[in-house]
């Protein structure tokens, strides 16, 4: 391509923002995230990022002597993967603030080689007292490749409204 030729502009622009707003979800709607297969790299990287170097997650010999019979993923790693995988759905681009988590429960261990997939059901939605904002509360359920629930929690978000 010569310098004199016009640059072709794509008709699609990637901005990191979504076109989904608070009004676009109704109580009972369910978001389904993609899956990820948990690897040794996930456990080691998580330990390095957080300083959580607990032997149950990183020392196969020690972990084999526990009731788990081998290494298992960090609970907060499973939680973070669940949040991140659902972010990939494109529904969170207009979130203005993450308000927190409640009712976090680890139901079963996640092991190296397990594939986890999250869903999130909108269980509460309301407008705030300030115009242009609403609250979503989502009930997350993460399952493994055997459809066994490994983690549940709720998360709340402040979300931009389309209409003020």
Question: Summary?
Answer:
The protein is of the alpha+beta class. The chain has 4 helices and 6 strands; from the N terminus they run E-E-H-H-H-H-E-E-E-E.
Topology:
Layout: E1 30-32, E2 36-37, H1 40-50, H2 55-58, H3 60-64, H4 75-87, E3 95-106, E4 115-127, E5 133-143, E6 149-160
Antiparallel strand pairs: 1-4, 2-4, 3-6, 4-5, 5-6
Describe the structure.
This protein has helices at 40-50, 55-58, 60-64, 75-87; strands at residues 30-32, 36-37, 95-106, 115-127, 133-143, 149-160. The chain is α+β, with helices and mostly antiparallel strands. The chain has a domain at 22-38 and 73-160: Thiol Ester Dehydrase, Chain A (Roll). Strands 1, 2, 3, 4, 5 and 6 form a six-stranded antiparallel beta sheet that branches. The longest helix has 13 residues, at 75-87. The termini are far apart. Residues 31-129 form the MaoC-like domain. Belongs to the enoyl-CoA hydratase/isomerase family. This is Molybdenum cofactor biosynthesis protein MoeC.
